[in-house]
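Lab notebook page, bench 4
Experiment: in silico fold of construct C2
Operator: M.H.
Input chain length: 275 residues
Purpose: comparison with the prior construct
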Amino acid sequence: MAEITAGLVKELRELTGLGMMECKKALTEAGGDLKKAEELLRIKSGAKAGKAASRLAAEGVIGAYLSADAKVGALVELNCETDFVARNEAFLAYSQLLAELVASQNLLDVAALVAYPGVETQRQTLVQKIGENISIRRIARMQTEAKLARYVHSGRIGVLVEYEGAEAMGKDLAMHISFSRPAYLTKSEVPADLLERERGILEARARESGKPAEIVAKMVAGGLNKFLDEIVLLGQPFIKDDKQSVEKMLATLKTRVLGYRFLVLSEGLEKKQAA
């Protein structure tokens, strides 16, 4: 059996929002398998699906750029070691420069950005000046014949939205995405295997209720619809009017979302713990 470490328990707590002892017990029952333990807790305790994007770790900033005509935009994740450096003016200026280069020079991956003339030299100069390791981790670029909106929340979440329609709605959509972080734009984009996994969890949970089969079927159908509304942008309650879904709000304002990208600072990284 795999060792049930404090770090593993902590990760499961962050995924499910449940207590330490519940998480440790589930990990023990699952033989240290994090994914299986999460499923057990969701069946037994009704925990929601985990959001990996909510686990912020190392420090840095999301640099963002939007062209004057709102046709080209870019996001760059620039990491450093401390939050003090993340507020440094030279560090912030470098992140903005990188985002503008990604947009204006049509750079499609980190390797291309690092190889662009002057980028690595400036990074090394900044490292020497500041005294911390600085790394370019991820980029995102969008270009459209329609319009783009940009939003950055506290330097830690950056969003680009491609849309047609009211400009104010584009900005609101970007803000909404930074808050809700939808995994998919429409229900048709949700992978079949993810739906089947969720259906299995909901069926197991419903069967434990002891209710008749027809009620169990309704519980599963309702649970699946709720799950989809949580992970799909168009089904989510709009942050400025939670009585309406994003889809209904868009229809009211004759606005259409064509796509979006977002970066969450240090998503998936583990912050170093003090000794």
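Observations: The first strand starts at residue 59 and ends at 66. Confidence is low (pLDDT under 50) at residues 51-57.
Next step: discuss at group meeting.
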